[in-house]
Design a protein that fits this description.
By secondary structure, the protein is of the alpha/beta class. Helices cover about 25% and strands about 30% of the residues. The N terminus is likely disordered.
Length: about 625
């Protein structure tokens, strides 16, 4: 056996100071027990990419335990994996050829661990799919092939393994090649290579074998070196999902740093940027790094922070784009290709959580177009749910708009996962954003009104009896300019005037009906519940006062929709900002709460909510 590609021993190249080579992520996938881990283990061993003594150590351990040595044991480090004989998680290993450095992701093939396979494949630029020559093409072989196309991985090599079990039959190899090629073409994948191998014996891994002299293509190692790197992410438009906001107060440091990882593009001090979905705009004042000097620019792949030339309230989950470039899209309705992994079917009218970049928002299954059997590529329409391991083209609706890209344009912000009860139960890619005239919340309110059984006491009768017209008063402003004092003073002012009024403070709510949200931090769900409770108060004829800091236009629309047909008045404290809400009354931030309460009461009287009002 002759070596096909020059490799550098693991312990040598780590010690040498050599020029940096490009890096590539390769995922190894296939049906369970078709030899993926063995292939990776053999590849590492044949390229001298193992730590010194590792191979001998594993062989000695197998001998002590009276077990036959397998190259897969080099990867299956977890005891339960070795005991069960299957790869449970996506293991990563590293080696280097003369052309580039590789990260090999050994993804599980068992049907129960498909979500681990998807998470592993999502990080890959190319794939090696392994098929057992004796067992042939299996259900998961097809399913994995479809998922590669769904995840946008177009470069692939198919290794027909265990050829020694079929006496290195060329006929068997070509039959598998022809059948699987026809299948993959339907998914949009054209494999670069089909390679006959025996991973156990090391044939056609890093060197050739006479028994397959009929095969003239590359070895596995040569095939990896033939894969092409994707265009650098830095050349794409800027996408900077905001992960968190950091504030510093010591020694007069008043910086607010938006931190995250630059997925694509680059950012430079002085750039004009826009945050989506809020639409807030600013200019980059500085680029920050932890325990490091400031830089003038940062590019894709770097975790960093930025400060702005103006104080903006930016929420984690927003995506920073550069003004003048193509920006991310914004929508509440997403047409997607979704792969479902949950034990329970995905159904309508159930609340799930969508994780897209750093954003986590409530989401509902809105419509199912088609459901596809990924192993057979057959489709079914008019489905009422999505079963486990189904692939569906469907429409999802979020509670409020999210920023995204089409996966075909920028995969990093076009892929998502679905979470149900703290478990990842699905994932997929975004095909397009859609405009819908009727939202799920609006439909809910319409249905609520149709089913509401009211008495003969009309709103006009209640208003005449109570001497007031009911409404919801929302006090909002920056988080550091709380409206709680104003809201309390307003309640006292109206109460002393004989009005039926109630102040629903955030703390009261979190200790009561929303105690389950105080830890999870699901602001959107809190606002949804606030809107539902407000509807009860205003329907009963009361004036309800509440405070919500930093409301954006989407959140305010949600509260107003849920409170309908009741009225809603918005009081904004502080200076106007970008993406400003439509406030009915604005008050200065330095106005005393008692004076502000009087101003709000006067406004309510002017708008005929408080007839015969006297201070």
């Amino acid at each position: 056996m002759t070596t096909a590609t020059k490799t550098i021993p693991f312990n040598t190249y780590r010690a040498e100071k050599t020029a940096l080579l490009e890096k590539m992520n390769i995922v190894i996938i296939g049906h369970v027990d078709h030899g993926k881990s063995t292939l990776v283990g053999r590849l590492l061993a044949d390229t001298d990419s193992l730590p010194q003594g590792k191979l001998a150590e594993v062989k000695a351990r197998c001998e002590r335990n009276a077990r036959p040595f397998e190259y897969a044991f080099l990867l299956d480090a977890l005891k339960d994996e070795q005991a069960q004989g299957i790869t449970i998680d996506s293991a990563r290993c590293f080696f280097r050829s003369s052309r580039r450095e590789y990260i090999l992701i050994d993804a599980p093939g068992h049907v129960e661990f498909l979500k681990n396979m998807i998470s592993g494949a999502a990080r890959a630029e190319a794939a090696v799919l392994v098929i057992d020559a004796k067992e042939g093409i299996q259900e998961n072989s097809r399913r994995h092939g479809y998922l590669l196309g769904m995840l946008g991985i177009r470069q692939a090599a198919v290794c027909v393994n265990k050829l020694d079990l079929v006496n290195y039959s060329r006929q068997t190899f070509e039959a598998i090649r022809d059948e699987f090629s026809a299948f993959l073409r339907q998914t949009g994948i054209e494999p670069r290579f089909f390679i006959p191998i025996s991973a156990r014996d090391g044939h056609n891994i890093a060197g050739r074998l006479d028994k397959t002299d009929w095969y003239k293509g590359p070895t596995v190692l040569e095939a990896l070196d033939c894969f092409e790197k994707e265009p650098a992410a830095v050349d794409k438009p800027l996408r900077f999902p905001v992960q968190d906001i950091y504030k510093f107060t010591e020694q007069g440091d008043d910086r607010r740093i938006a931190a995250g990882r630059i997925e694509t593009g680059s950012v430079t001090t002085g750039d004009d940027v826009v945050f989506l979905p809020s639409g807030k705009r600013a200019r980059i004042a500085s680029i920050e790094a932890f325990n490091a000097p400031r830089a003038e620019s940062a590019g894709a792949g770097r975790s960093t922070g930025v400060t702005l030339d103006r104080q903006l309230y930016i929420q984690p989950g927003e995506v920073m784009c550069r003004a003048g470039q193509e920006t991310a899209q914004v929508a509440t309705h997403l047409r997607v290709n979704l792969f479902w992994l949950g034990r329970e079917p995905m159904i309508f009218n159930k609340r799930y959580l969508l994780k897209l970049g750093t954003a986590k928002v409530p989401v509902w299954l809105r419509r199912i177009h088609t459901v596809l059997d990924a192993s057979e590529l057959t489709t079914e329409k008019n489905r009422s749910h999505i079963e486990r391991h189904d692939v569906a083209e469907c429409v999802l609706e979020t509670l409020k708009p999210v920023a995204f890209d089409l996966s075909s344009a920028i995969a990093q912000t076009g892929r998502f996962v679905i979470i149900d009860q703290y478990r990842i139960c699905g994932g997929g890619i975004i095909l397009e954003g859609q405009r819908e005239s009727q939202t799920l919340v609006a439909e809910h309110v319409a249905q609520r009104e149709r089913n509401w059984r009211r008495s003969r006491i009309t709103p006009a009768l209640r208003a005449a009896r109570l001497g007031q017209k009911s409404t919801l008063v929302v006090v909002t402003g920056p988080a550091d300019q709380s409206g709680e004092n104003l809201a309390r003073h307003l309640e006292e002012t109206l109460f002393n005037d004989g009005r039926q009024v109630y102040y629903l403070g955030i703390n009261n709510s979190l200790l009561g009906i929303d105690s389950d949200l105080s830890r999870s931090g699901l602001r959107d769900e809190f606002l949804r519940r606030l809107g539902e409770v407000s509807h009860l108060f205003t329907d009963a004829g009361l004036i309800l006062i509440t405070t919500v800091s930093d409301l954006d236009p989407y959140e305010l629309k949600l509260i107003k929709t849920l409170n309908s047909p009741g009225d809603c008045l918005v009081v904004r404290i502080g200076a106007q900002t970008d993406a400003e809400i439509d406030a009915d009354l604005r008050l200065p931030a330095d106005l005393p709460a008692s004076e502000g309460a009087k101003d709000v009461a006067k406004y309510l009287a002017q708008q005929h909510y408080l007839p015969e009002y006297y201070l």
